[in-house]
TrEMBL record:
Family, as annotated: Belongs to the fibulin family.
Subcellular location: Secreted, Extracellular space, Extracellular matrix
Alphabetized Gene3D superfamilies for the sequence: Laminin
Keywords, in A-Z order: Calcium, Disulfide bond, EGF-like domain, Extracellular matrix, Glycoprotein, Repeat, Secreted, Signal
Alphabetized SMART domains for the sequence: EGF (SM00181), EGF_CA (SM00179)
Gene Ontology molecular function: calcium ion binding
Protein's name in the database: Fibulin 2
InterPro entries listed in its UniProt record: cEGF, EGF, EGF-like_Ca-bd_dom, EGF-type_Asp/Asn_hydroxyl_site, EGF_Ca-bd_CS, Fibulin_C, Growth_fac_rcpt_cys_sf, Nephronectin_domain
Matching Pfam families: cEGF, EGF_CA, Fibulin_C
Gene source species: Sander lucioperca (Pike-perch)
Span of domain EGF-like: 175-217, 218-259, 260-298
Length: 502
């Protein structure tokens, strides 16, 4: 591993370097001398503490120090077994044969003895005392007796008192369990309790011993402890008792107290259920009433049972309530949900009147009216026509109305009859004026009449009940006598009777 060299300068002309060893050399013309350095002795080696330094020529080696146990020796750094039998280093006697083992040896007798004997150091067979050499050769209930080549076990003789018997191993007396063996004399209904050397007969729980009849009789706990065992009802049972509860209660987990039963958990009611102490009560939601069976809810027909008018037009019963409805056309439901509000088709442009017609809104509808002026009249406003001047020789023209005015009136069928619906008179009126009024057209069925209120005022009346919606167009003529001259005026009145059910 390590090498040491000595460099010697030998003389002129000699330039040879000689390796250090323990011999002298003559190399060429160079005379050299080398001496080995013992690194182990000079402690210049680098071996570890667990290694041994061994010097070599020109170097050293580090060998691992190995300590072998007894019976082994180190060979090539390995512990190998020493064969004492081969090396004759054993101490076996003449009657024994050496047998090598790992790290030792055995001395085996040359001749084996039969069972029950062993060989002494001289090779003789001697009896083995099993009673002393073996660990418990006999059971605890037996005594060991040594014999030649063997041994015997002799049972111990044990006498036990009444209520005891010898244990299976014969070593001691143990208690006899008369209860388990069924050798007791306890009566029917009694419980056998084993005791050391004897037993005791007790009555079962819930029974007491009757000394006269010598039997166990049931204890009525409900009579013995009235009101203390159960919260409600106590029922005696053989050997015990049972607590029960009345209707509407269930027995609690402790078996004594009673808890209210929530009958509503089983949904006994048609709609709503309210649990009450020991029972329950069914009730219905708004719009329903509880039937006589106390469980079923029936819908209330508010429309048929209502004293007042719930809806202005139509009441529709629904489950649990009611709804108000309006006619299919011309109305919309108000925000209060009860009254119907007329749709003004004229304002909302929902009508179908032509350009030359005027839209007039009604309850639940509309009318397209034409205010055209007849021949020889001119239109001075949307609803008024005035006569053009007449020829002097045309009597018909001079007798025709000087002015035609259109009016629109709307009433419901439930209007109280007779009803004054229109007034007519000159404006302005002068002293001495007199008028004559009459319906000259449109009153063929006699629904209307006229009446003079004073000398210059007249009125139109609805004198007959109109039971269904109906449209009328009546011409009311007023003749004014002023300063000896008659002048005619015509009021063309549209009267619309609409339904009163809305």
């Amino acid at each position: 591993r390590h090498h040491s060299h000595t460099y010697i300068h030998c003389g002129r002309g000699c330039h040879t370097t000689c390796s250090s060893d323990k011999h002298s050399h003559t190399l060429g013309h160079c005379c050299s001398f080398s001496a080995d350095v013992d690194e182990c002795a000079t402690n210049t080696h680098s071996c570890r503490p667990s290694e041994q330094c061994v010097n070599t020529v020109g170097s050293f080696i580090c060998e691992l120090q190995v300590t072998c146990p007894a019976g082994f020796q180190l060979r090539n750094s390995v512990c190998k077994d020493i064969d004492e039998c081969v090396l004759q280093t054993h101490n076996c006697g003449m009657g024994f044969v050496c047998e090598n083992t790992a790290g030792s040896f055995l001395c085996n007798p040359k001749h084996k003895c039969i069972s029950g004997f062993t060989q002494d150091s001289h090779g003789n067979c001697i009896d083995i005392n099993e009673c002393s050499s073996l660990s418990e050769p006999c059971g605890s209930g037996f005594n060991c007796i040594n014999t030649v080549g063997s041994y015997t076990c002799q049972q111990k003789i044990i006498m036990c008192n009444p209520g005891y018997h010898v244990s299976p191993d014969g070593a001691m007396c143990v208690d006899t369990d008369e209860c388990q063996m069924g050798t007791h004399r306890c009566g029917v209904g009694q419980i056998c309790h084993n005791l050391p050397g004897t037993y005791r007969c007790d009555c079962q729980t819930g029974y007491q011993y009757d000394a006269l009849r010598k039997v166990c009789s049931d204890v009525n706990e409900c009579w013995r402890y009235p009101g203390r065992l159960c919260a409600q009802t106590c029922e005696n049972t053989p050997g015990s008792y049972h607590c029960s509860c009345t209707a509407g209660f269930s027995l609690a987990f402790d078996g004594k107290n009673c808890e209210d039963v929530n009958e509503c958990d089983k949904n006994p009611c048609g709609q709503e259920c309210a649990n009450i102490y020991s029972s329950y009560q069914c009730y219905c939601r708004q719009g329903y009433y509880l039937k006589e069976d106390g469980h079923t809810c029936e819908d209330i027909d508010e429309c048929s049972q209502s004293i007042g008018n719930l809806c202005t037009f139509k009441c529709v019963n629904v489950a649990g309530s009611y709804q108000c409805a309006c006619p299919a056309n011309g109305y919309v439901m108000s925000a209060n949900g009860r009254t119907c509000k007329d749709i003004d088709e004229c304002t909302t442009a929902a009508h179908n009147c032509s350009y030359g017609q005027t839209c007039y809104n009604l309850q639940g509808g509309f009318r397209c009216l034409s205010f055209a002026c007849p021949h020889n009249y001119k239109k001075v406003s949307d609803i008024r026509c005035e006569r053009i001047s007449c020829p002097s020789n045309s009597l018909d023209c001079q007798n025709s109305p000087v002015r035609i005015t259109y009016y629109q009136l709307s009433f419901q069928t439930n209007i109280i009859i007779p009803a004054q619906i229109f007034r007519i008179g000159p404006s302005p009126a002068y002293s001495g004026d007199h008028i004559v009024i009459g319906i000259i057209k449109g009153n063929e069925e006699g629904y209307f009449s006229t009446r003079k209120l004073n000398s210059f005022t007249g009125a139109v009346y609805l004198q007959r009940q109109v039971r269904e919606p109906k449209d009328f167009l009546i011409d009311v003529e007023m003749k004014l006598l002023r300063q000896g001259t008659f002048t005619s005026f015509l009021a063309r009145i549209y009267v619309f009777i609409t339904s009163s059910a809305v």
